[in-house]
Amino acid sequence: MRIQIDHATTYAYDRAARFIIQTLRMTPRSSEGQQVRRWQVETDVDARLRRSEDSFGNVVHTLYTEQPTASLTVRVSGEVITSDTAGVVPPDQETLSPLVFLRDTALTKRDRLISVFASEFSAHPPLERLHRLTAAIHGSVAFEVGVTTPTHTAAEVLALGRGVCQDHAHVFIACARQMGVPARYVSGHLLRRDTENQEAAHAWAEGWVEGLGWVGFDPANGVCPTDRYVRVATGLDYLGAAPVRGASYGGGGERLAVRLTVRDADMQQSQQQA
Predict the structure, then answer these.
(1) Residue 4 belongs to what H/E stretch?
(2) 115-162, pLDDT tens digit by residue?
(3) pLDDT tens-digit profile of 38-67?
(4) Is residue 240 packed enough to be buried (19+ CB in 10 Å), middle (13-18) or exposed (0-12)?
(5) CB within 10 Å: which end of the chain, N or C, has fewer?
(6) What is each CA distance from 63 to 24, 107, 186, 213, 249, in whole angstroms?
(7) How many CA atoms lie within 13 A of 144 on its CB side?
(8) ∠ CA 153-156-157, rounded to 5°
(9) What's the order of all strands across the beta sheet hosting 183-190?
(10) Is this model's pTM higher than 0.90 or not?
(11) How many angstroms separate the CA atoms of 222 and 228, rounded?
């Protein structure tokens, strides 16, 4: 599938920020499961962009402004060709042992509720237990925008029973690690069937299954990723794979606006030709 993405994040300040630094994990990598045909990162102000790679293998751009800035827009756009791998992540340039992804973080720390919830699936074979876990989270945590923040932990979300895709991924990761299964957070994009315009990027999780490797699971939708998904970054949790993280100095009253369009390029072309 040929997927076009246009993702713009705008920061506006009541008083101009003297200095802004941001870490951008917004650029996908090519692999056997997806080929990045074109991709660009742009800003609407005079800023420096330095490209590098983090310890998880993510493409990272570090952005620096060097003059007072009242507003800043970071825009990424491009085209990715994807293939359906039934959720299995094709071998890539992995640099870390899967055992790294057994490590707890503040957002995925396990408590008694996580332990009890995960214990229901421990007796099943590895792949089946993760499928069952995905279905259980999908049924237990209703998708609802505005009830959680990026600081909510997996345990808090499971107790609340509501959240967004980030929260579903954290619950999955915490439960998988409780069962001794390495699990990691994935940020990326989902080509939805109902609309091209979206309010935010998507998030899901991957679990390590011996004999298969990394396998994707999307508890927010109760499915494994298909060719409608574009992987961008992975990490131990949201903080390690967030599209944008940073700080500003000297500004005030920061406001954030996101504009995201994810479309089927082939369908759009056929409609234009009709």
Answers:
(1) strand 2-17
(2) 999 999 999 999 999 999 999 999 999 999 999 999 999 999 999 999
(3) 999 999 998 999 999 999 999 999 999 989
(4) buried
(5) C
(6) 7, 26, 22, 34, 14
(7) 12
(8) 85
(9) 213-217, 202-209, 183-190, 229-235
(10) yes
(11) 14
